[in-house]
């Protein structure tokens, strides 16, 4: 049970800008010391990781702000990578309105670069305006979950998947079998927030994390549509770094892969880096299982550890460290 003291402390941390203000103060202090003392990039990386740990460890106790102002705690699905689930994050009416906006934006008269034909069906990805009341409210809710301000988010996207189409993807490190990672140190996407805007009654369309380890909890056992406990990550090292099972094998009925069914209004938050901002090569890999029939819609937003228009200082530090060790 979360204590009132913990919630009060975390609420005050969020009101003060969370770990962002701490990072800025640390950068400013490091800049003032640089003229008179040697820099310690390893300590700076440790500071960034420690602050991120504080943010991520406490952020989910804040939950989302519902219309009833009721505190809702996300459900932990996996610890490696950290995956959280929030049921009824959006109402059915909100989901329908977002789908209508996305369909209108993807129409032929709209920007044709937003429309994509998949290999086995049609799908699209569109960027919706953040000035609309609906999208602005959803973006605010997404950032409350991660405790990063909206200025740390990328474009708000809605993605459509049709039958037989497993993935529309321009994410980082796309694989032929459509498993991918959302981030690396350069991209700096500390977290991904994804909301299912529709259910898939005919089956398929799960978000699959083959090597994520499902936690054993009574709450998660009661949650509907959570399948598999996670494959043994050692199978990659046994067969080589290039070994990745085909998507059909990962999404099958008897697969051990962790799979999360699309349910309308359900939100997922998963961290692409560990608390020290190291990205795993295996457990963070994920993909979309093919939709058996019908259509699946999702809304997503990538959350970065640096603001729009600001440099990725952590990537710069690591690049400098690598050059010094060469």
From TrEMBL:
Transmembrane segments: 44-63
SMART domains: P4Hc
GO MF terms held by the record: iron ion binding; L-ascorbic acid binding; procollagen-proline 4-dioxygenase activity
Organism superkingdom: Eukaryota
The keyword Magnesium appears for this protein: no
GO cellular component: endoplasmic reticulum
Coiled coil: none
InterPro entries in the record: P4HA-like, Pro_4_hyd_alph, Pro_4_hyd_alph_FE2OG_OXY
Pfam families according to UniProt: 2OG-FeII_Oxy_3 (PF13640)
Protein name (database record): Prolyl 4-hydroxylase alpha subunit domain-containing protein
Organism per entry: Vitrella brassicaformis (strain CCMP3155)
């Amino acid at each position: 049970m979360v204590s009132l003291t913990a919630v009060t402390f975390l609420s005050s941390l969020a009101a003060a800008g969370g770990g962002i203000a701490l990072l800025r103060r640390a950068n400013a202090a490091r800049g003032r010391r640089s003229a008179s003392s040697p820099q310690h990039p390893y300590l700076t990386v440790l500071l960034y990781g420690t602050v991120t740990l504080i943010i991520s460890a406490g952020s989910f106790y804040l939950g989302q702000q519902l219309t009833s102002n009721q505190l809702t705690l996300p459900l932990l699905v996996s610890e490696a990578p950290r995956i959280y689930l929030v049921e009824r994050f959006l109402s059915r009416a909100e989901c329908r309105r977002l789908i209508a906006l996305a369909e209108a934006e993807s129409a032929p008269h709209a920007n044709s670069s937003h429309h994509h034909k998949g290999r086995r069906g049609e799908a699209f990805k569109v960027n919706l305006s953040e000035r609309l009341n609906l999208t602005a409210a959803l973006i605010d809710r997404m950032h409350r979950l991660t405790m990063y301000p909206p200025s740390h988010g990328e474009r708000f996207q809605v993605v459509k998947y049709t039958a037989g189409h497993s993935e529309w993807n321009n994410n980082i490190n796309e694989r032929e079998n459509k498993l991918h990672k959302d981030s690396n140190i350069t991209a700096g996407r500390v977290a991904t927030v994804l909301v299912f805007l529709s259910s898939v009654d005919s089956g398929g369309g799960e978000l699959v994390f083959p090597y994520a380890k499902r936690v054993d909890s009574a709450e998660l056992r009661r949650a509907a549509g959570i399948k598999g406990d996670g494959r043994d990550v050692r199978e990659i090292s046994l067969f080589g770094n290039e070994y990745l099972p085909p998507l059909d094998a990962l999404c099958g009925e008897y697969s051990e892969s962790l799979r999360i069914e699309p349910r309308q209004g359900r939100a997922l938050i998963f961290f692409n880096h560990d608390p020290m901002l190291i990205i795993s090569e295996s457990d963070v890999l994920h993909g979309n299982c093919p939709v058996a029939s019908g259509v699946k819609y999702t809304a997503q937003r990538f959350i970065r550890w640096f603001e729009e228009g600001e440099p990725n200082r952590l990537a710069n530090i690591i690049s400098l460290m690598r050059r010094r060790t060469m």
